[in-house]
Model the fold of this input.
Amino acid sequence: MAVDLSFDVDAAIERLMRFLAVEGVTGREKKIATEVKQALVEVGVPSKSIRFDKANESIPLPTQTGNLIVTLPGTVAGDPLLFSTHLDTVPLCAGAVPVRKKNKIHPEGRTALGGDNRTGVAALVTLAATLIANKLPHPPITLLFTVREESGLFGARHLDPADLGGVVMGFNIDGRQPNDLIAGAVGAERWEVEITGKASHAGAHPEQGISATLVAALAIAEVKHSGYFGKITLDGKVGTSNVGSFGGADGKPAGDATNVVTDFVRITGEARSHDSKFVKEIVKAYKDAFTTAAASVTDDKGKSAKVKFVSRLDYHPFNLKENAPVIERAKSAAVLAGLKPNVRTSNGGLDANWLVKHGIPAVTFGAGQNAIHTVEEWVDLDQFEQGCRMAIACAVVGQQA
Done:
Protein backbone atom coordinates (compact mmCIF):
# COMPACT_ATOMS: atom_id res chain seq x y z
CA MET A 1 0.00 0.00 0.00
CA ALA A 2 1.46 3.36 -1.07
CA VAL A 3 1.93 6.29 1.26
CA ASP A 4 -0.82 8.90 0.87
CA LEU A 5 0.72 12.09 -0.58
CA SER A 6 -2.43 14.19 -0.32
CA PHE A 7 -2.18 17.57 1.41
CA ASP A 8 -4.19 20.73 1.92
CA VAL A 9 -3.60 22.47 -1.42
CA ASP A 10 -5.71 25.51 -0.56
CA ALA A 11 -3.74 26.07 2.64
CA ALA A 12 -0.47 25.70 0.73
CA ILE A 13 -1.54 28.36 -1.80
CA GLU A 14 -2.71 30.70 0.98
CA ARG A 15 0.68 30.19 2.61
CA LEU A 16 2.43 31.06 -0.64
CA MET A 17 0.37 34.23 -1.06
CA ARG A 18 1.20 35.16 2.53
CA PHE A 19 4.94 34.79 1.99
CA LEU A 20 4.91 36.56 -1.39
CA ALA A 21 3.42 39.62 0.32
CA VAL A 22 6.31 39.91 2.79
CA GLU A 23 9.31 41.87 1.56
CA GLY A 24 12.72 40.29 2.09
CA VAL A 25 15.26 41.27 -0.52
CA THR A 26 18.71 39.78 -0.28
CA GLY A 27 20.45 40.77 2.95
CA ARG A 28 17.21 41.98 4.54
CA GLU A 29 15.51 38.69 5.38
CA LYS A 30 14.55 39.28 9.03
CA LYS A 31 10.88 40.06 8.34
CA ILE A 32 10.26 37.05 6.09
CA ALA A 33 12.22 34.80 8.46
CA THR A 34 9.99 35.90 11.33
CA GLU A 35 6.89 35.22 9.21
CA VAL A 36 8.13 31.75 8.28
CA LYS A 37 8.92 30.93 11.90
CA GLN A 38 5.39 31.96 12.90
CA ALA A 39 3.90 29.84 10.12
CA LEU A 40 5.92 26.82 11.24
CA VAL A 41 4.66 27.20 14.80
CA GLU A 42 1.10 27.49 13.48
CA VAL A 43 1.36 24.09 11.73
CA GLY A 44 2.66 22.37 14.84
CA VAL A 45 6.45 22.73 14.85
CA PRO A 46 7.62 23.40 18.44
CA SER A 47 9.39 26.75 18.88
CA LYS A 48 12.34 24.94 20.45
CA SER A 49 12.89 23.12 17.13
CA ILE A 50 13.35 26.41 15.24
CA ARG A 51 16.56 28.41 15.48
CA PHE A 52 18.87 30.75 13.60
CA ASP A 53 22.55 30.10 12.99
CA LYS A 54 25.27 32.75 12.95
CA ALA A 55 26.14 32.64 9.26
CA ASN A 56 25.32 36.35 8.95
CA GLU A 57 28.25 37.14 11.24
CA SER A 58 30.63 35.61 8.67
CA ILE A 59 29.01 36.97 5.51
CA PRO A 60 31.08 39.92 4.21
CA LEU A 61 27.97 41.98 3.37
CA PRO A 62 25.41 43.42 5.81
CA THR A 63 22.91 40.64 6.56
CA GLN A 64 20.10 41.01 9.07
CA THR A 65 19.81 37.42 10.21
CA GLY A 66 21.35 33.98 9.98
CA ASN A 67 19.98 30.93 8.23
CA LEU A 68 16.73 29.54 9.65
CA ILE A 69 17.10 25.89 10.70
CA VAL A 70 14.26 23.58 11.73
CA THR A 71 14.56 20.03 13.06
CA LEU A 72 11.75 17.49 12.75
CA PRO A 73 12.36 14.25 14.68
CA GLY A 74 11.89 11.06 12.70
CA THR A 75 8.91 8.80 13.16
CA VAL A 76 10.79 5.84 11.69
CA ALA A 77 14.44 4.84 11.60
CA GLY A 78 16.47 6.18 8.70
CA ASP A 79 19.28 8.48 7.66
CA PRO A 80 18.53 12.17 8.35
CA LEU A 81 17.43 14.18 5.32
CA LEU A 82 17.88 17.87 4.49
CA PHE A 83 15.31 20.03 2.69
CA SER A 84 16.51 23.51 1.75
CA THR A 85 15.43 26.69 0.02
CA HIS A 86 16.34 30.38 0.24
CA LEU A 87 14.45 33.18 1.99
CA ASP A 88 15.67 36.17 -0.03
CA THR A 89 14.50 37.68 -3.28
CA VAL A 90 16.19 39.97 -5.80
CA PRO A 91 15.78 43.74 -5.16
CA LEU A 92 13.32 44.01 -8.07
CA CYS A 93 10.79 42.24 -5.83
CA ALA A 94 10.69 45.09 -3.28
CA GLY A 95 7.10 46.17 -2.72
CA ALA A 96 5.60 43.23 -4.61
CA VAL A 97 1.86 42.68 -4.24
CA PRO A 98 0.79 39.18 -5.31
CA VAL A 99 -2.47 38.77 -7.23
CA ARG A 100 -4.00 35.39 -8.01
CA LYS A 101 -5.80 34.83 -11.30
CA LYS A 102 -7.06 31.25 -11.62
CA ASN A 103 -4.00 29.00 -11.52
CA LYS A 104 -1.40 31.78 -11.71
CA ILE A 105 0.00 34.41 -9.37
CA HIS A 106 1.31 37.68 -10.84
CA PRO A 107 2.70 40.88 -9.30
CA GLU A 108 0.15 43.69 -9.22
CA GLY A 109 2.59 46.46 -10.20
CA ARG A 110 5.88 46.88 -12.03
CA THR A 111 7.92 44.69 -9.71
CA ALA A 112 9.12 41.14 -9.84
CA LEU A 113 7.02 38.72 -7.78
CA GLY A 114 9.40 36.75 -5.58
CA GLY A 115 8.33 33.27 -6.63
CA ASP A 116 12.10 32.80 -6.59
CA ASN A 117 12.07 31.57 -3.96
CA ARG A 118 8.91 31.97 -1.93
CA THR A 119 7.60 28.93 -3.79
CA GLY A 120 10.34 26.92 -2.11
CA VAL A 121 9.67 28.54 1.26
CA ALA A 122 5.95 27.74 1.07
CA ALA A 123 6.70 24.20 -0.11
CA LEU A 124 8.93 23.48 2.91
CA VAL A 125 6.39 24.84 5.39
CA THR A 126 3.74 22.75 3.61
CA LEU A 127 6.02 19.73 3.92
CA ALA A 128 6.25 20.23 7.68
CA ALA A 129 2.50 20.84 7.97
CA THR A 130 1.66 17.68 6.02
CA LEU A 131 4.09 15.40 7.85
CA ILE A 132 2.67 16.55 11.18
CA ALA A 133 -1.04 16.68 10.30
CA ASN A 134 -1.11 13.39 8.40
CA LYS A 135 1.32 11.59 10.73
CA LEU A 136 3.34 10.38 7.76
CA PRO A 137 6.27 8.03 8.40
CA HIS A 138 9.59 9.76 7.82
CA PRO A 139 13.23 9.73 9.01
CA PRO A 140 14.71 12.72 10.91
CA ILE A 141 14.42 15.85 8.76
CA THR A 142 16.17 19.23 8.84
CA LEU A 143 14.68 22.21 7.04
CA LEU A 144 17.13 24.92 5.98
CA PHE A 145 16.05 28.40 4.87
CA THR A 146 19.15 30.27 3.70
CA VAL A 147 19.89 33.99 3.45
CA ARG A 148 21.65 35.98 0.73
CA GLU A 149 21.37 33.31 -1.95
CA GLU A 150 20.62 35.88 -4.63
CA SER A 151 23.72 37.96 -3.92
CA GLY A 152 26.22 35.11 -3.96
CA LEU A 153 24.96 31.95 -2.20
CA PHE A 154 26.37 33.41 1.03
CA GLY A 155 24.01 31.73 3.48
CA ALA A 156 24.78 28.24 2.17
CA ARG A 157 28.46 29.06 1.85
CA HIS A 158 28.83 30.19 5.47
CA LEU A 159 26.64 27.61 7.19
CA ASP A 160 28.21 25.09 9.55
CA PRO A 161 27.29 21.56 8.38
CA ALA A 162 27.41 20.45 12.01
CA ASP A 163 24.25 22.50 12.59
CA LEU A 164 22.25 20.30 10.22
CA GLY A 165 21.85 17.19 12.35
CA GLY A 166 24.07 14.75 10.46
CA VAL A 167 22.04 14.80 7.24
CA VAL A 168 23.30 12.44 4.55
CA MET A 169 21.61 13.97 1.51
CA GLY A 170 19.64 17.05 0.57
CA PHE A 171 16.73 18.20 -1.56
CA ASN A 172 16.88 21.86 -2.57
CA ILE A 173 13.74 23.54 -3.90
CA ASP A 174 14.58 26.31 -6.35
CA GLY A 175 13.27 26.34 -9.90
CA ARG A 176 10.35 25.79 -12.20
CA GLN A 177 9.67 22.13 -13.01
CA PRO A 178 9.24 19.67 -10.10
CA ASN A 179 10.34 16.74 -12.26
CA ASP A 180 13.62 18.42 -13.35
CA LEU A 181 16.20 16.96 -10.99
CA ILE A 182 19.29 19.18 -11.07
CA ALA A 183 22.26 16.97 -10.28
CA GLY A 184 25.04 19.31 -11.41
CA ALA A 185 25.70 23.01 -11.84
CA VAL A 186 28.36 25.43 -13.03
CA GLY A 187 30.96 27.06 -10.84
CA ALA A 188 31.53 30.81 -10.91
CA GLU A 189 33.93 33.58 -10.00
CA ARG A 190 33.08 37.25 -9.66
CA TRP A 191 35.61 39.94 -10.43
CA GLU A 192 35.94 43.68 -10.19
CA VAL A 193 38.44 46.12 -11.59
CA GLU A 194 39.24 49.69 -10.65
CA ILE A 195 40.84 51.76 -13.39
CA THR A 196 42.61 54.94 -12.33
CA GLY A 197 43.50 57.46 -15.02
CA LYS A 198 44.01 61.21 -14.85
CA ALA A 199 41.57 64.06 -15.35
CA SER A 200 42.21 66.94 -17.74
CA HIS A 201 40.18 69.40 -19.78
CA ALA A 202 38.71 67.32 -22.58
CA GLY A 203 38.50 70.31 -24.92
CA ALA A 204 41.66 72.28 -24.19
CA HIS A 205 44.13 69.56 -23.29
CA PRO A 206 42.77 66.02 -23.69
CA GLU A 207 46.30 64.76 -24.32
CA GLN A 208 47.20 65.62 -20.72
CA GLY A 209 44.59 63.20 -19.39
CA ILE A 210 44.46 59.44 -19.11
CA SER A 211 40.99 58.16 -19.90
CA ALA A 212 39.84 55.34 -17.64
CA THR A 213 36.82 54.96 -19.91
CA LEU A 214 39.06 54.28 -22.90
CA VAL A 215 40.99 51.65 -20.95
CA ALA A 216 37.71 49.92 -20.10
CA ALA A 217 36.48 50.05 -23.68
CA LEU A 218 39.72 48.65 -25.11
CA ALA A 219 39.84 45.86 -22.54
CA ILE A 220 36.25 44.72 -23.07
CA ALA A 221 36.71 44.86 -26.84
CA GLU A 222 39.79 42.65 -26.53
CA VAL A 223 37.94 40.14 -24.37
CA LYS A 224 35.22 39.97 -27.01
CA HIS A 225 37.77 39.66 -29.84
CA SER A 226 39.59 36.82 -28.09
CA GLY A 227 36.35 34.86 -27.60
CA TYR A 228 35.97 35.17 -23.84
CA PHE A 229 32.83 37.31 -23.74
CA GLY A 230 29.24 36.00 -23.46
CA LYS A 231 28.81 32.37 -24.49
CA ILE A 232 32.28 30.87 -24.75
CA THR A 233 33.45 27.79 -26.65
CA LEU A 234 37.22 27.51 -26.96
CA ASP A 235 39.24 24.36 -27.65
CA GLY A 236 36.41 22.15 -26.45
CA LYS A 237 35.91 24.15 -23.25
CA VAL A 238 32.57 25.82 -22.58
CA GLY A 239 31.60 28.68 -20.29
CA THR A 240 30.06 32.13 -20.06
CA SER A 241 31.11 35.57 -18.92
CA ASN A 242 29.49 38.94 -18.44
CA VAL A 243 30.30 42.53 -17.59
CA GLY A 244 27.83 43.73 -14.99
CA SER A 245 28.00 47.18 -13.40
CA PHE A 246 30.05 49.93 -15.05
CA GLY A 247 30.40 53.10 -12.99
CA GLY A 248 32.49 55.28 -10.74
CA ALA A 249 33.24 55.43 -7.03
CA ASP A 250 30.57 55.00 -4.34
CA GLY A 251 27.89 54.01 -6.81
CA LYS A 252 28.17 57.24 -8.77
CA PRO A 253 28.45 57.43 -12.58
CA ALA A 254 31.88 57.13 -14.12
CA GLY A 255 33.13 60.58 -15.03
CA ASP A 256 32.03 64.02 -13.90
CA ALA A 257 31.30 65.87 -17.14
CA THR A 258 31.71 65.62 -20.90
CA ASN A 259 34.48 68.21 -20.83
CA VAL A 260 36.60 66.29 -18.31
CA VAL A 261 38.65 63.22 -19.19
CA THR A 262 37.31 60.45 -16.95
CA ASP A 263 39.86 59.56 -14.31
CA PHE A 264 38.18 56.58 -12.59
CA VAL A 265 36.02 53.62 -13.61
CA ARG A 266 34.89 50.63 -11.56
CA ILE A 267 33.55 47.54 -13.35
CA THR A 268 32.20 44.23 -12.03
CA GLY A 269 31.71 40.98 -13.88
CA GLU A 270 31.53 37.20 -13.64
CA ALA A 271 32.66 33.97 -15.29
CA ARG A 272 30.97 30.55 -15.21
CA SER A 273 31.75 27.03 -16.36
CA HIS A 274 31.27 23.41 -15.36
CA ASP A 275 35.09 23.24 -15.54
CA SER A 276 36.63 25.05 -12.56
CA LYS A 277 39.95 25.50 -14.37
CA PHE A 278 38.23 27.13 -17.32
CA VAL A 279 36.47 29.59 -15.00
CA LYS A 280 39.90 30.78 -13.87
CA GLU A 281 41.08 30.95 -17.49
CA ILE A 282 38.17 33.23 -18.36
CA VAL A 283 38.86 35.52 -15.39
CA LYS A 284 42.54 35.67 -16.33
CA ALA A 285 41.57 36.74 -19.85
CA TYR A 286 39.75 39.74 -18.37
CA LYS A 287 42.62 40.59 -16.03
CA ASP A 288 45.19 40.42 -18.84
CA ALA A 289 42.99 42.54 -21.12
CA PHE A 290 42.61 45.31 -18.53
CA THR A 291 46.33 45.26 -17.73
CA THR A 292 47.32 45.50 -21.39
CA ALA A 293 44.78 48.20 -22.13
CA ALA A 294 45.94 50.29 -19.17
CA ALA A 295 49.53 50.22 -20.42
CA SER A 296 48.41 51.41 -23.86
CA VAL A 297 46.56 54.53 -22.70
CA THR A 298 49.00 57.30 -21.75
CA ASP A 299 49.18 61.04 -21.28
CA ASP A 300 51.53 63.42 -23.09
CA LYS A 301 54.33 62.51 -20.69
CA GLY A 302 54.03 58.78 -21.23
CA LYS A 303 52.36 57.95 -17.93
CA SER A 304 49.77 55.21 -18.17
CA ALA A 305 46.61 54.22 -16.32
CA LYS A 306 46.66 51.88 -13.33
CA VAL A 307 44.38 48.93 -12.69
CA LYS A 308 43.47 47.02 -9.56
CA PHE A 309 41.86 43.72 -10.48
CA VAL A 310 40.48 41.31 -7.86
CA SER A 311 38.36 38.17 -8.12
CA ARG A 312 36.73 35.77 -5.70
CA LEU A 313 35.23 32.34 -5.90
CA ASP A 314 31.44 32.46 -5.91
CA TYR A 315 30.78 28.72 -5.88
CA HIS A 316 32.33 25.45 -7.00
CA PRO A 317 30.88 23.40 -9.88
CA PHE A 318 29.53 19.95 -9.11
CA ASN A 319 28.14 16.97 -10.97
CA LEU A 320 26.74 14.06 -8.97
CA LYS A 321 27.02 10.54 -10.33
CA GLU A 322 23.75 9.32 -11.79
CA ASN A 323 23.66 6.36 -9.39
CA ALA A 324 24.19 8.55 -6.32
CA PRO A 325 21.71 7.61 -3.56
CA VAL A 326 20.24 11.12 -3.49
CA ILE A 327 19.44 10.96 -7.20
CA GLU A 328 17.96 7.48 -6.85
CA ARG A 329 15.75 8.69 -3.99
CA ALA A 330 14.67 11.78 -5.94
CA LYS A 331 13.81 9.68 -8.99
CA SER A 332 11.78 7.25 -6.90
CA ALA A 333 10.02 10.17 -5.22
CA ALA A 334 9.14 11.70 -8.58
CA VAL A 335 7.55 8.45 -9.73
CA LEU A 336 5.67 8.18 -6.42
CA ALA A 337 4.39 11.74 -6.99
CA GLY A 338 3.21 10.86 -10.50
CA LEU A 339 6.01 12.70 -12.29
CA LYS A 340 8.51 11.63 -14.95
CA PRO A 341 12.00 12.35 -13.55
CA ASN A 342 14.40 14.28 -15.77
CA VAL A 343 17.97 14.38 -14.43
CA ARG A 344 19.97 17.30 -15.82
CA THR A 345 22.54 20.00 -15.05
CA SER A 346 22.16 23.76 -14.66
CA ASN A 347 24.10 26.76 -15.94
CA GLY A 348 23.09 28.75 -12.87
CA GLY A 349 24.44 28.65 -9.35
CA LEU A 350 22.41 27.04 -6.59
CA ASP A 351 22.64 26.62 -2.83
CA ALA A 352 23.29 22.99 -3.77
CA ASN A 353 26.73 24.03 -5.06
CA TRP A 354 27.79 24.80 -1.49
CA LEU A 355 25.81 21.96 0.08
CA VAL A 356 27.76 19.52 -2.07
CA LYS A 357 31.00 21.28 -1.16
CA HIS A 358 30.03 20.87 2.51
CA GLY A 359 29.74 17.12 1.93
CA ILE A 360 25.95 16.94 1.51
CA PRO A 361 24.99 15.58 -1.93
CA ALA A 362 21.92 17.55 -2.98
CA VAL A 363 19.42 17.47 -5.82
CA THR A 364 17.43 20.59 -6.75
CA PHE A 365 13.92 20.62 -8.16
CA GLY A 366 11.36 23.34 -8.84
CA ALA A 367 7.97 24.45 -7.53
CA GLY A 368 6.52 26.76 -10.14
CA GLN A 369 8.83 29.76 -10.61
CA ASN A 370 8.50 31.39 -14.03
CA ALA A 371 10.17 34.43 -15.68
CA ILE A 372 12.18 35.08 -12.53
CA HIS A 373 14.06 38.35 -11.94
CA THR A 374 11.69 40.22 -14.28
CA VAL A 375 8.51 42.27 -13.92
CA GLU A 376 6.80 39.52 -15.94
CA GLU A 377 7.46 36.95 -13.20
CA TRP A 378 4.61 34.59 -12.31
CA VAL A 379 3.97 31.39 -10.37
CA ASP A 380 2.25 28.38 -11.92
CA LEU A 381 0.06 26.95 -9.16
CA ASP A 382 -0.18 23.54 -10.84
CA GLN A 383 3.61 23.31 -10.77
CA PHE A 384 3.65 24.63 -7.21
CA GLU A 385 1.24 21.88 -6.14
CA GLN A 386 3.43 19.29 -7.84
CA GLY A 387 6.52 20.73 -6.14
CA CYS A 388 4.91 20.41 -2.73
CA ARG A 389 3.92 16.83 -3.50
CA MET A 390 7.44 16.10 -4.73
CA ALA A 391 8.88 17.37 -1.44
CA ILE A 392 6.51 15.16 0.55
CA ALA A 393 7.42 12.19 -1.63
CA CYS A 394 11.16 12.77 -1.06
CA ALA A 395 10.52 12.65 2.68
CA VAL A 396 8.43 9.48 2.75
CA VAL A 397 9.50 7.42 -0.26
CA GLY A 398 10.48 3.91 0.78
CA GLN A 399 7.98 3.90 3.64
CA GLN A 400 5.26 2.05 1.73
CA ALA A 401 3.45 -0.46 3.92
Notes: The chain has a mean pLDDT of 96.
